[in-house]
Design a protein that fits this description.
- The protein is 28% helix and 34% strand.
- With 235 residues, the chain is of the alpha/beta class.
- The strands form 2 sheets. Strands 3-2-1-4-5-12-11 form a 7-stranded mixed sheet, with helices on both faces. Strands 6, 7, 8, 9 and 10 form a 5-stranded antiparallel sheet that branches.
- It is globular and about 55 Å long.
- The chain starts with a helix and ends with a strand.
- Bound molecules: S-adenosylmethionine.
- The site of S-adenosylmethionine (SAM) has 18 residues, from helix 3.
- The site of S-adenosylmethionine has 18 residues, from helix 3.
């Protein structure tokens, strides 16, 4: 199932304008970073879509937990270094000028205890004056329960339909993604991909960032609707 997901990841998220997002991220880095270096770490980098547009300006490293997805990134962003690891406790034994973690990936750590560990880990990998930019998942108050959602991809040789609804179970946002995929000369495939993410409060997240030694700012107008961006500078 993960292999299938890695192969179709870029198709299902082809609606996302990664190039435009990186333009905004680059502006924020310029505004907040005071180090001289250009070492950038993308945590939960996925298939490397952001790194693809960052590698012209930075020395890039990507970390992700999913091997299949990392393989897609490695083939796409040849100049970057990749490591398969968990964002909660990875140890790269070096410090970066910039750390980004986008498209709500940090929500996958699920609990506040893990969120705090993850933020401390980010701060430990940051140089003094370096900047971390995190895009969280929704908070409890911005998350819509029972929202029907559909994403489709209509290529010549492959068609994908993904449907899900949004639920809260045990304090987590739960989405069972039902995929129907048909490829040229193949049978239709159906599978369910379950996602469970933490709905972390803005105040609590900012508190963890401050506690980790970061000067913080929450930018309401982020990359995607109602998610915002958390910017931290290591003091
Ligand atoms: C929604 S995708 C975002 C990927 C990428 N940042 C993007 O913008 O396309 C979430 C990613 O988080 C990764 N992930 C989930 N839990 C993780 C963990 N504990 N540590 C590292 N990566 C994780 C998944 O493998 C997946 O690639």
């Amino acid at each position: 199932m993960y292999k299938v997901f890695a192969d179709i990841y870029d198709l299902i998220y082809s609606f996302k304008d990664y190039k435009k997002e990186v333009k905004k991220i680059k502006k924020l880095i310029k505004k907040y970073k005071s180090t001289d270096g250009s070492e950038l770490l993308d945590v939960a980098c996925g298939t490397g879509e952001h790194l693809k547009y960052l590698e012209d300006s930075f020395i890039c490293t990507g970390v992700d937990i999913n091997e299949g997805i990392l393989n897609v990134a490695k083939n796409k962003v040849k100049g970057a270094t990749f490591k398969q690891a968990d964002m909660i406790n990875f140890d790269l034994n070096k410090k970066f000028d910039v750390i980004i973690s986008l498209f709500s990936s940090i929500g996958y750590v699920q609990t506040y205890a893990n969120l705090e560990k993850t933020i401390v880990n980010f701060a430990n990998h940051l140089k003094q004056g370096g900047v971390v930019i995190i895009e969280l998942w929704f908070t409890k108050s911005t998350y819509w329960v029972g929202l029907p959602s559909m994403t489709t991809y209509d290529g010549d040789d492959i068609k994908i339909a993904r449907l899900n609804t949004t639920k809260i179970e045990n304090d987590l946002s739960v989405m069972e993604m039902h995929y129907l995929i048909v490829e040229k000369n193949k049978d239709v495939k159906y599978f369910v991909d379950k996602h469970e993410l933490g709905l972390f409060d803005t105040d609590k997240t900012l508190e963890f960032m401050k506690k980790a030694g970061l000067k913080v700012e929450f930018l309401k107008d982020g990359l995607m609707k109602e998610r915002g961006l958390y910017v931290g500078v290591k003091t």
